[in-house]
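queue> pop job 88
queue> type: inverse folding (structure -> sequence)
queue> payload:
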């Protein structure tokens, strides 16, 4: 795991955008088939805006061959609801980047097929050859995707019930916590760990405790994000506030400052 403590949220967004663009360019040079896993919380939005701005300025790569898979989806929203995660990611990223809609995927929350929705999404991910890079946020309680505390570290895509805390965190998108759906389909922790590269982004003091538990605490279902410690290729990119509770912060800063220019993330 590489922990990268930066000063500001804007720096986090720029570095994360660099990493994503490098992968897209590298895969395009090889076979044109970059597969990205996308998170749809608040933290990645600055990175997505940075990617769009670069693309619109003519500096970004060609995204037409990219395929994307969302981490999760609400259950119970009308298909045309603006807060479905498929609508959100298309609005906030993939449409502006020029990724064809048919290459943008998410778990299918249709009630008629809900019992087998997790298995179908797992099959889609396998058929795509797996996710090359998975963008992650982290909840204030340490959840990743919608794997709440207590989720099995061996879990696959499935339906989950959201805690009151998570619904409260997401109320800003719906106007009130009561309007946030109670259930979601989410990639499991084991599903997330299959991605080739995990890119966890966190900004703001509210995330500091969860970041410290995930990066420096024990690997435990009580902090689902701590499972990233089991992955061989993880980049945790933080602003100063999100990094403020790390006990080894000086070490991470020293390692980042001394990182060779040729050695990428």
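queue> result:
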């Amino acid at each position: 795991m590489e922990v990268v403590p930066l000063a500001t949220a804007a720096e986090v967004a720029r570095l994360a955008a660099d990493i994503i663009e490098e992968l897209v360019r590298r895969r395009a040079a090889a076979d044109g088939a970059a597969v990205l896993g996308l998170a749809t919380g608040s933290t990645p939005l600055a990175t997505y805006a940075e990617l769009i701005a670069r693309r619109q300025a003519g500096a970004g790569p060609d995204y037409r061959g990219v395929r994307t898979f969302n981490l999760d989806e609400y259950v119970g929203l009308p298909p045309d609801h603006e807060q479905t995660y498929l609508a959100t990611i298309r609005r906030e990223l993939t449409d502006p980047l020029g990724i064809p809609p048919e290459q943008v995927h998410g778990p299918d929350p249709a009630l008629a097929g809900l019992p087998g929705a997790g298995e179908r999404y797992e099959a889609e991910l396998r058929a795509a050859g797996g996710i090359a890079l998975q963008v992650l946020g982290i909840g204030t309680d340490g959840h990743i995707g919608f794997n709440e505390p207590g989720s099995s570290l061996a879990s696959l895509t499935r339906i989950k019930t959201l805690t009151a805390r998570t619904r409260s965190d997401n109320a800003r998108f719906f106007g009130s916590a009561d309007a946030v759906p109670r259930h979601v389909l989410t990639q499991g922790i084991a599903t997330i760990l299959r991605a080739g590269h995990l890119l966890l982004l966190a900004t703001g003091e509210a995330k500091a405790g969860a970041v410290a538990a995930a990066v420096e605490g024990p690997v435990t279902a009580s902090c689902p994000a701590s499972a990233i410690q089991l992955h061989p290729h993880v980049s945790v990119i933080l602003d100063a506030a999100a990094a403020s509770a790390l006990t080894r912060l000086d070490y991470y800063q020293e390692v980042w400052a001394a990182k060779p220019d040729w050695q990428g993330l």
